[in-house]
Amino acid sequence: MNKLVKKRQPKYFKSFKCIGGKCEDSCCIGWDVDIDKSTFNQYENIKESYIKEFLKGNIILNKECEDFEIDFGKVSIKENKRCPFLDEDNYCVIHSKLGEEYLSNVCTLFPRVVNKVDNVYEVSLDVACPEAARIVLASGEKIEFEEVEGNLGKHIILNRLNTSLEELNWLPVEFFYEVRNKSIQIMQNRDLKIEDRINILGDFIKSVENEIDFNYDNASKFIKEYDINKNVGESLNITTDLIKNIIKLIDLDNITSEEFKKDTISLLNNLESLSYLKEKISLRDNIEKYNFIFENYLVNFMYNSLFPYSEIESIYDGYIMLLVRYELIKYYLAFNYENSSNKEVIKFIQVFSKAIGHHKTYLIKVLNYIKEEYQII
C-alpha cells in the first residue's frame, strides 16, 4: 500500500530500526512464521532456480488458513524453533538475497502494530521486541502522540474500530476516543504513584460502564469531568493465591524462552515462602524507581490494544487484563529481579511480553478464571 494515508503514532515510532542479527532475542526464533498469499505467489514466480528450490523446500500451504493476508502459507519451523531462512549470523537470507519487498506481511510488520480506527491508521511498537522495548520503555519522558501522513507498505491491520457505530459486540464504541484519552491521562498523572493510578483507572472504567448502562445521555459529560486525582481503593484485589493459580495456567511446555521458564518455576516455588511478605513490601516501597517504565509499558499497551475495547464482552474486561499484566510483571520482579537495574527490568518485560503477551489461549483462560473467581458478569 503505497498511497498516503493518515497515521496516528507515538513520537517514539520514528526512532525504530530493526537491528537484525545483532538482536539478542530474534523474532525469527521461537515463533511460527506465516506467509500471506501475495508473498507466497511472489516466491512461486522467482526465476533463480536455487533460491526457488530453497524456498519451496521450507514453505508449505497452511491447511488451517484463517486469512489470506496473513497465513495462506507457513514456514516449516524445525525442532529448534529456528526459521530456516536465518543464516549463521541470524540475518534473514530472503532479505539479503531478494530484498525487503520479498518479506511476508508478518515478517515486514513485527514489531510494528497497525490498527485502523475510523479512517486513521494507528501505528505503534510491540515491546516483545528487545529494540522496541528499549525505545518505548527506557525514556523517562511521557509517551506523546502525533498525526502524520505517510504510506504503510506491507502491513496487517490487527484491529478495526468504527466509532460511528453506537455499539460493536455490545461495546459502546462511540465513546472510544474519550475513554482512551482519559485513561491515558490517568496513567500519565505523575502526581500519583503507579498503583494509585491503576486503581483510579479501574474506578474510572467501572464508573463509565455504569454511566453508559444507566445514564447514557450523561456519559460524555461524566468522562470529561471525571477527577483523575480522586482517592479510591483497589478496584480489584489481586491476591497471592490468584496470582499463583494464574501462573499455573501457563503451559511451560509451549514456552520457548528458557529464561522465562526458569523465572516461572522459581516464582511458583517461592510464592509460599516466609520471605514473600517482605519481598512484596520491599517491591512496593521501591517500585517508584520503575514508575516511568511501568507507565510507558501500560500507556503503550493501552494504545496498541485499543484499550479498553481490547476484550470482547465489556470495557471492564479490558481493565482486568491490563491489571493482570501489571501484577504478573510485579510479582516476577519481586522474586527474580529484586534491586534490578532499569535495563534488567526492561529486558524482563520484553521476555514476558514475547512469552505471554501473544499467547491468546492463555490470556482467555486467565480472563475467564478471574471473572469466575470474582463472580464478574
Can you offer a commentary on this structure?
Helix content is 47%, strand content 9%. It is an alpha/beta fold. Among the domains are: 28-109, no CATH class; 194-373, no CATH class. Helix 12 (276-286) crosses helix 14 (315-336). The chain is globular and about 70 Å long. It comes from Clostridium thermobutyricum DSM 4928. This is Flagellar biosynthetic protein FliU.
Shape: globular
In angstroms, what is the radius of gyration? 22 Å
Helix content range of the residues, please? Answer: 40-55%
Q: Which strand order spans the largest sheet, edge to edge or round the barrel?
A: 7-1-6-5-8
The class by helix and strand makeup works out as: alpha/beta
Biggest sheet statistics: 5 strands, mixed
Low-confidence stretches: none
Number of E strands? 8
Share in β-strands: 5-15%
Query: How many angstroms separate the termini?
Result: 42 Å
Q: Give the topology string: H per helix, E per strand.
A: EEHHEHEHHEEHEEHHHHHHHHHH
Mean pLDDT figure: 90
- How many separate helices? 16
Protein name: Flagellar biosynthetic protein FliU
Keywords: Cell projection, Cilium, Flagellum
What are the SSEs and their pairings?
Layout: E1 5-10, E2 34-35, H1 37-44, H2 49-56, E3 59-61, H3 68-71, E4 73-75, H4 93-98, H5 105-109, E5 112-117, E6 120-125, H6 130-137, E7 145-150, E8 159-161, H7 176-187, H8 194-214, H9 219-225, H10 240-248, H11 258-270, H12 276-286, H13 291-304, H14 315-336, H15 342-357, H16 360-373
Parallel strand pairs: 1-6, 5-8
Antiparallel strand pairs: 1-7, 2-4, 3-4, 5-6
Helix pairs in contact: 6-15, 7-8, 7-13, 8-14, 11-14, 12-14
